[in-house]
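Handout, section B. The chain below has 261 residues.
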Amino acid sequence: MEKNKKTILISNDDGISAPGIKHLWNALHEEYEVTIVAPHSEKSGSGLATTLFKPLHIFEEKWEKNAKAYRITGTPTDSVKIALSSILKTKPDVVVSGINRGSNAGRGVLYSGTVGCAIEAALRDITSIAFSCDDLNDPNYLEAEKYIPKIVDFFLKNKPPFGTLINVTFPSKSITIKGFKLTSQGKSRWIESPDKRNHPEGHNYFWLGGVWHIHEQEDENSDTVLINQGYITASPINVADLTDKNYLIEKKQEFENIFKI
């Protein structure tokens, strides 16, 4: 490792052969000591899923410039867990995931394996950033690649608090980029759009699919709105304490009085 060079772990949920992870590496490998650890195949929608009842196999992957790269027969979260516990000798300075094909803005963070990688790192107090491109069919990877180094550098110098990850989304190619916004998470999300089909053996099956649902009370300053206005959005998402404090205070005494033993 070069002296004074920051270390970075790259992962994703689209799989180690996905174009997005190559662009992420392209953006960062000259400035950082990079290790890539990612699922062997696409694991989109995995969230924080973890493999418990079957073995995980780790294989070295050929990469440009002999970079250290590994594919894992598990989920995105498995990749980060194995990287931090069994592959890397020291904790990395930053964990980045992506670049995801399709938006992880809004409440998509709850389903995304790309964001799952960043959550796992944030819960270990490692600076973590999840990157996604808004356009699912024609992601703007090359444009995103230009801005990624500056974004990573900023959050390394301005480390988020424990349990906070940064969720970054790039607009589609059809929109001229106006600038950057550090902003709130939107309420819009992907919802299911099941496609019911008939199996030759006589039973029905489904392709679950999904469509983007715009929330009727979306905040005009949220990531899901600003992306469509041409802004690269970065949302700080905190997972350190998921307790609903207001409800806890409101209902605590009533609940405990009813269930007194």
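Note. The two ends are 61 Å apart (CA to CA). Compare this with the example in section A.
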